[in-house]
Design goal:
Oligomer: single chain
Number of helices: 9
Distance between the termini: 48 Å
Order of helices and strands: EHEHEHEHEHEHHEHH
Radius of gyration: 17 Å
Number of domains: 1
Strand order of the largest sheet: 3-2-1-4-5-6-7
Shape: globular
Largest sheet: 7 strands, parallel
Structural class: alpha/beta
Number of strands: 7
C-alpha cells in the first residue's frame, strides 16, 4: 500500500507517517519544510517520496495531484492546516483567507480528486484531519472552528454517500481535542486543558480508519464532551467556548 500525507513535517501528520511506515505502508509526504521530511525518510524502512509544496496556493494543490496520480495511492491523509486566535474583527484578513485556502479548499480539492480515483477502482481510504472544533462554533478562534465544521460535515456527508452506494471506499474524519503540536505557536495562543500526544492520536486515527469509522475521536473524555454538546443550548456553548479561548490567550 502507499499513502499520501499532507502536512507531514510535524505534529499529527508526522506521527501518522511514522505509524503508517511501521505498518509497512510506503509514503509520499508533503510539506514546505524539506529538512523535516528528510528526517522522516531517514527513520523509516519503507519507500518514501518527498514533495515540498505550499498547499495554501491552489495551483500547488493541483500540481500535487498531477505529480502523484499515477503512483497507485491507496490512502489520502489530509492534514495540512493551521489556526489563528483572536477576536474576529481584529485578526488579519489575509491570514484568515490563507487559512480557509489551506484548511478548506485544499482538503476539498484533494478529497474530490482522489475520491473519484478511489471510486473507479472501488478501494481506498481518505482520512481528513478535522477537530473536535468541527462540532461547535468558536468565539476568539472563529475562522478555524468554521473551517473544521466545513470539513467535518463534508466528510460525514461523503461517508453516507459511499455507504448508500455500498462502496468499498472509506472516508473518515479525525476529530481530536487539544493535541501537543505546533498549533499553538502558529495560532498565537495556548490550550487551557491538557494536550494529548500526537503519537497516540496517530495510532488511534489509522487503526480506526482501517475499521472504516466515520468519526474518530481519540479519547473517552473528548467523546463525552462531543456527545453532551448535543444537549447544551447554542448560547451556552458559545459562552463556554468564548471563555475557554480567553484562557488560551491569557485573558
Amino acid at each position: 500500500m502507499r499513502a499520501l500525507v499532507t502536512g507531514a513535517s510535524s505534529g499529527i501528520g508526522r506521527e501518522i507517517s511514522y505509524y503508517l511506515a511501521s505498518l509497512n505502508i510506503d509514503l509520499i509526504i508533503v510539506a514546505r519544510n524539506k529538512k523535516e521530511l528528510e528526517k522522516i525518510k531517514e527513520k523509516v524502512n519503507v519507500d518514501v517520496k518527498i514533495i515540498t509544496l505550499d498547499l495554501i496556493k491552489k495551483e500547488n494543490v493541483y500540481k500535487l495531484y498531477d505529480l502523484v496520480k499515477n503512483n497507485n495511492i491507496d490512502i489520502l491523509v489530509n492534514n495540512a492546516g493551521f489556526g489563528l486566535f483572536g477576536l474576529f474583527y481584529e485578526t488579519n484578513l489575509d491570514r484568515e483567507l490563507e487559512m480557509i485556502d489551506l484548511n478548506v479548499t485544499t482538503y476539498h480539492i484533494l478529497t474530490k480528486l482522489f475520491l473519484q480515483d478511489f471510486i473507479k477502482k472501488d478501494s481506498g481510504y481518505i482520512l481528513n484531519v478535522c477537530s473536535s472544533a468541527g462540532f461547535m462554533a468558536g468565539p476568539r478562534l472563529s475562522t478555524y472552528y468554521a473551517t473544521k465544521n466545513y470539513i467535518t460535515k463534508l466528510t460525514m456527508a461523503i461517508n453516507e454517500e459511499l455507504r448508500q452506494m455500498k462502496s468499498n471506499v472509506s472516508i473518515s474524519a479525525l476529530c481530536p481535542g487539544p493535541v501537543n503540536t505546533n498549533f499553538n505557536k502558529v495560532a498565537n495562543g495556548e490550550f487551557s486543558i491538557k494536550e494529548i500526544s500526537p503519537k497516540i492520536v496517530a495510532k488511534v486515527a489509522v487503526d480506526k480508519m482501517f475499521k472504516r469509522k466515520m468519526l474518530i475521536i481519540p479519547t473517552f473524555k473528548m467523546q463525552c464532551a462531543v456527545f453532551f454538546t448535543r444537549f447544551i443550548p447554542y448560547r451556552l456553548q458559545l459562552i463556554i467556548a468564548y471563555h475557554i479561548q480567553g484562557k488560551k490567550l491569557g485573558k
